Amino acid sequence: MKQQDEKLSLLLDDDTEADINAELGEVIADVNLQYRMRRYQIIGAAMRNELAQAINTDFHHQVMANIRAELPPVAMQDSGSETARNSAIAFMARSWFRPFAGLTVATSVALVTVALWQQQDPAPKDDLASADQQKIEQLAGQQIAGGAEPVSSRVQSPGTRWKLEHESPVLQRKLNAYLVNHTEYSNSMQGLIPQARVAGFDAEQ
Amino acid sequence: MPSSNPSARQDLPSKLLVGVLLSTLVQAPVIADTAMDWVQRMSDAMHDLNYRGDFVYMHDNRLESMEISHYKDAQGEKERLISLNGEAREVIRDNQNLTCIWPSSHKVIVDVSRKNSFSPIFIPEDIARLEKFYQMRLVGKDRVANMNAVVVHIDPRDQFRYGIKFWINEDNGLMMKSSLLDENEQVIEEVMFTNLQMFAGDNELVIDTMPPIDDNFTLVRYHSGDSSRTFAADNAWVLTDVPGGFWRESVLRRKIPGSDEFIQQMVYTDGLASLSVFIEKKSDLTQSGVSSMGAVNAFIRILNDHSVTAIGEVPPITVKQVAESVSYQRQ
Predict the structure, then answer these.
(1) Rounded CA gap, B225 and A48, in Å?
(2) How far apart are CA B9 and CA A73, in angstroms?
(3) Cβ A187–B263 below 8 Å, yes or no?
(4) Chain B closest CA to A200's CA: distance in Å?
(5) Which of B113, B229, B280 comes nearest A184 by C-beta?
(6) How many helices (H) and strands (E) does chain A have?
(7) CATH fold for domain B35-218
(8) Does any CB of chain A come closer than 8 Å to the CB of residue B26?
(9) How far apart are CA A84 and CA A103, in angstroms?
């Protein structure tokens, strides 16, 4: 059991060298995948302004805080050191709670701290890119209850290769925005070229 | 000369039947035999097959190398594109999300992916329409990435669209190479596989290697559209001079975050080429004029207090004509 605990602990510490059995690895991979996917989805929702609130995007700390809070006192008393405590956390997270791990992640996402945030964006109404920038900067500046650091949300000008009559970062961003939208919503038969164009952004930076 | 032999006439139906059957048997291994058949087969293969390969992307006298992985299961298609030179760039797409990641500079874009946008699926009506504006022909065979390919040349019949050349894998129908050609048959953009491997249907690991996003990532947002919500399109915006063969495929109206303004996108296609028209309130920084990136051209026009931008992988003359034909006609 101790050996298994160590493996689980190593896994939680992201030690990829750990020799894990296939079944355990598969389950954990699923959980990690769910975690990552949820994170992508939340980031996407925030970026699309589908969340009218500021959110705590630091799911990892949120999940770990929940697990720590749910640890039974006995397990904590038995562990005399921080290492043992971490090992217990690892075990709880990966073994006892294994069947519920995906649910825990999902629940943590669902219960993620939400601070009501009115959209009082003073961004110029006629500038698509600027409106985005201000909104994201507001999100970045939002203090999150619990002390977790949100995903940094500074906006940087992407490098592109648009040939313009007059150099303009705003126009570059706008054309990039248009091209991404155009690529997604058009259905042209040009093989991989449309996707390659999008992946090719920023090559000159 | 018709046969005058009665017995020969009696045998004719059975001989025809045998002939047809033999012909069918002989032709059975040939899955596609016309240029359009091959294009159709390529479109299906790009959707249905699981593959991973490296390809080069040439544009504007630049050359980039990329890796693509494509996987399809019951949930739909997944695709990952990684740039192999310069800054690492990654585009991951499934039926829900389009995620663009720049791991080294810690930037990410996440957007809604449009279902079935991996490549078009043609129906017979499309083929008839396409042949009105393009001439499609098989021009021979070639070898790409050590694989045999059939070469299809698609010539536009007017100046409003580019030509396309496809090298299609003879065995599995995948696109091995494609070139966009201008009116002088010069290559404007080109992609070409340098190696390609097929995967069995149960090998999902082809895709599931997303890089972790840490807390220092920068969210770069290219569009502010709330893609999952739809607003009624403003049908007063009309295009009066769209080049022949282009039809309106879709119209979307999205709200600009943080404002009460909308941006409207109208997508036009002729089945092979496409362009979008974006209309929004103009800003003080809006400038009219032409822009280009590889085969993509854009034309921005100021129309009263709006900016009208036509953008697409079509010649400059097309985006200019389309943008200039936009008007607002109250019902």
Answers:
(1) 6
(2) 98
(3) no
(4) 7
(5) B113
(6) 9, 2
(7) outer membrane lipoprotein receptor (LolB), chain A (2.50.20)
(8) no
(9) 25
Tokens of A81: 């050191």
SS3 A136: helix
B218-219 and B107-112 strand pairing? parallel
Contact yes or no for B221 and A132 at CB 8 A: yes
Residue type (1 letter), A28: I
The radius of gyration computed from the CA coordinates of chain B, to the nearest angstrom, equals 24
Using an 8 Å Cβ cutoff, are A178 and A162 in contact? no
Backbone angles phi, psi at A98, to 5 degrees: -55, -50
Domain B237-328 in this protein, CATH class: alpha beta
**B297 at A interface, C-beta within 8 A:** no
Amino acid (one-letter) located at A74: V
Residue B304 tokens read as: 């009263």
A45 in Cβ contact with A136 (< 8 Å):
no
- Is the CB of A64 inside 8 Å of chain B's CB atoms? no
> For residue A194, what pLDDT is reported?
64
A 10 A CB-CB count for B233 gives 15
Do residues B50 and B71 lie in contact, with contact meaning Cβ atoms separated by under 8 Å? Answer: yes
Q: What value of ipTM does the predicted structure carry?
A: 0.74
Question: What's the gap in Å between the CA of B30 and the closest CA on chain A?
Answer: 23
Domain boundary assignment for chain B: 35-218, 237-328
Whether residues A202 and B109 touch (CB distance < 8 A) is answered with no
Instruction: Report the distance separating Cα A199 and Cα B92, nearest Å.
Output: 10
Nearest residue to B104 via CA among B80, B82, B132, B71: B82
pLDDT per position as a tens digit, B102-140? 777 677 766 666 544 545 555 556 677 888 899 999 999
Q: What is the distance between the alpha carbons of residues A111 and A118, in angstroms, rounded to a whole number?
A: 20
Helix (H) or strand (E) holding B134: strand B134-144
Interface test with A, best of B136, B256, B303, B305 (most A CBs within 10 A): B256
d(C-alpha B248, C-alpha B236), whole Å: 15
B274-310: pLDDT as tens digits? 899 999 998 877 778 888 888 889 999 999 999 999 9
Helix (H, G, I), strand (E, B) or coil at B55: strand
B90-93 and B107-112 as β-strands: parallel, antiparallel, unpaired? unpaired
pTM above 0.80, yes or no: no
